[in-house]
Amino acid sequence: MRRPSPGPIVGVAVAFMVIAGLSLSGWGLAFNSSESMPTGLYLLSPVSQIVRNQLVAGCIPKSDLTDEYAARGYLPKSTDCPSGLARILKPVAAIGGDQVRIGEDGVRVNGRLISGSQVLDVDSAGRPLPHLRVGWERQIPKGSCFLLSNHSRRSLDSRYFGTVENGDLVYRARALLTL
Predict the structure, then answer these.
(1) Rounded CA separation 3/11 (Å)
(2) Which residues of 26-44 are buried (b: 16+ CB within 10 A; e: fewer)?
(3) CA distance readout (Å), 36 to 10, 18, 43, 74
(4) Residue 159 — very low, low, confident or very high, per pLDDT cuts 50/70/90?
(5) Residue 13: its pLDDT value, please?
(6) Residues 64-103 pLDDT 10s
(7) Which runs of E-coded beta strand occur in the chain?
(8) Around Cβ 169, how many Cβ atoms within 10 Å?
(9) What is the distance between the alpha carbons of residues 158 and 149, in angstroms, rounded to a whole number?
(10) Of 56, 41, 7, 82, whose CA–CA distance to 172 is shortest?
(11) Which CATH number is 7-178's, of 3.65.10.10, 3.60.150.10, 2.10.109.10, 2.40.160.20?
């Protein structure tokens, strides 16, 4: 009689130990299924410094619109963030000191137009979508940043909820496996 191979059991045990080790060290894994970034598995590590083009996971600011974001299904509810919404995964488009302007043609950071960054007036269901007004221009305050997805025009990002404080960005994210 042939004994079953211990391979699957060992594989599960190793995976469990890796995940437990990541969690204890402040690292983690996240699966993204939203359309605003590529679907897949991301490695999360503690963020120490915020830099342009860095992919981060963090909390959006609490506002009068956060309940509406949840009701419309933009973000699930969660206790992870003060806004009551789940963390988001977005690239940092601008950091403290950068100049950001929203125009008819999209978002400009330090004068450079980011393609596909026009604000949308309605969501995919045709409902009005509150956003920063066209003509909005600011120097991003120190300790804050502007998040903007370069993957989807329909991303819920700083065009709609404004700047994010660096302290609300909990993780740096790196794609491990995307579809």
Answers:
(1) 17
(2) ebbeeebebebbeeeebbb
(3) 36, 28, 17, 10
(4) very high
(5) 40
(6) 999 999 999 999 999 999 999 999 999 999 999 999 999 9
(7) 28-32, 40-46, 55-58, 88-95, 99-103, 106-109, 112-113, 137-139, 144-147, 164-165, 169-178
(8) 22
(9) 9
(10) 56
(11) 2.10.109.10
DSSP label at residue 78:
-
92 token code pair: 């940092």
Q: Return the pLDDT at 20.
A: 45
- Which two tokens mark 139? 């120097």
Letter for the amino acid at 148? L
Residue for token pair 């391979």: 7
Q: Which residue has the tokens 């619109």?
A: 65
